[in-house]
Amino acid sequence: MGSESQNQPQQEASSMNAIFVMLLGLAAMFLGYVFYSKFVAEKIYKLDPNFKTPAHEFEDGVDFVPTNKYVLWGHHFTSVAGAAPIIGPAIAVIWGWVPAFLWVIFGTIFFAGVHDAGAIWASNRNKAKSMGSLTGDVVSKRAQTLFMIVIFLVLLMVNAVFATAISGLLVKFPSSVIPVWGAIFVALIIGQIIFRKWMGLGTVSILGVVALYLLIWAGPSAPLSLPETMGGLTDNASWVLILFGYAAIASLLPVWMLLQPRDYINGLQLFIGLILLYAAVLLLGPDMTAPAFNTNLPENTPSMLPLLFVTIACGAISGFHGLVASGTTSKQLDKETDLRFVGYFGAIGEGSLSLATIIAACAGFATLADWEAVYSSFGQGGVAAFVEGGANIISQGVGLDNEIAETLLTVMAVLFAGTTMDTGLRLQRYIFQEWGNIYNISWMQKALPATLLAVISCVALAFGAGSDGSGGLAIWPLFGTTNQLLAGLTLMVITVMLVRLGRPMYVTLLPLIFLLIMTVFALFIQLKGFYMEENWFLFGLDIVVLIAAVWIALEATSALSNLKKEQKS
């Protein structure tokens, strides 16, 4: 068998030029925003500029704050982006760059934009309730209970695993430490300037970006590393604790003070980084080294169908986006019509990052052999492939020093992951507070105790299954399927709302059906794998998620059926 595989003809690299891939992808997403998002906003969601948003109705200066749409776009986009639109596509290209490219483009236009804007709309029309709370009103109380469990699991995985990912990057790239933590102080200053209106948004944007890039330039000249062991903890574990301490404080501060300005500047930084990377592609004109369809898959690589659709979540569609959209974004929406730009264009921004990741991971290596050395097994690639491949393209295309290019891309990934942690912990605090309201536990309804519970649960997972703080990776194999299930459930709530209003529902129903089929299919495949590996913890958790998926789908079907009967009568 081995000799037969050695005698097979060597697969060839794709002859497609990365410029064509880039222009085709960007043009498709641009047209999707101009035409499809306008149709969805005007004909499906029927956005009303005169509707009084919860940000005005419940304005408190902490969570409910009417916000400029460009600043809010920065918060929403960078909160939902994290490192996931880099990690997912950079892993999924192992099946070839064409499948990943198609899912990112079509997923962004017809799935993510509709889902993200719809989640903001649904929450905005219901006093900024979260998707979990909204499920109880729209579907049923049983569905709400199950939905809240799924949400809690997703947030637990996101917070615990992103802390591990960030700590690993800070250890591997010490030149990124000063830019990453310096960006927090820049954001605090910018937050005061914007909130107190000391300067115009254009001026403060330029100053913030300049400060951030000065930090990136200074990073390689002053790399910082923690001691390999400190107080009995490894450097990775120490960073994990520091990150959770920071995220806890950030989640309690008013959104205008740190969350909004940090996310806004990160959003601008991303677009500058993307422009730099795309400009380098135009100047260098590299070919896609990776195969269009990989016929030489490493051993134990799973089937592309359905796992492509759960491996690439952020960058195509992700349930976590619905949590951010209904958890923090809807509380800051100044005008309802702003949500087309904030939600749908936020999805376009994420799609453009995933497109850049595909190009960096597939055109940033000199030869097919170099690419195959990185993708020697399933799960390889990730952020490291994006940083290495992207830095090669930037340094060769625009002449930037390779170390500075690596630092720039690493800081981009870390800052996104960090903003996701900020928002993720705040959302987890909201979950505990909502549980406090549901079960009449008065102390849990307060911000500080709820935040402590959120941190304790994340730290317990991080260190309970890994002494270096990487315990979140224990349940990470289920993240993709659980996250996509959450996206399907969010679309389900939006669909029921559309039916109640007598509006066309196919825009959300078709993506919903597709996602549920792929997710349940993937859950069964994973269930078999966990059984073969005798991983009984994940096997049991997989069954819990499967039961929740089927149960909530039945509850939604029942709700839709009852609505149809009411409308006929």
Automatic annotation (TrEMBL):
Pfam families: CstA
Transmembrane residue ranges: 16-36, 77-95, 101-124, 145-170, 176-194, 201-219, 239-259, 266-285, 305-329, 341-366, 408-427, 447-467, 473-499, 506-525, 537-560
Family, similarity comment: Belongs to the peptide transporter carbon starvation (CstA) (TC 2.A.114) family.
Subcellular location: Cell membrane
Topological type in the membrane: Multi-pass membrane protein
Protein name, entry field: Carbon starvation regulatory protein
Keywords annotated in UniProt: Cell membrane, Membrane, Transmembrane, Transmembrane helix
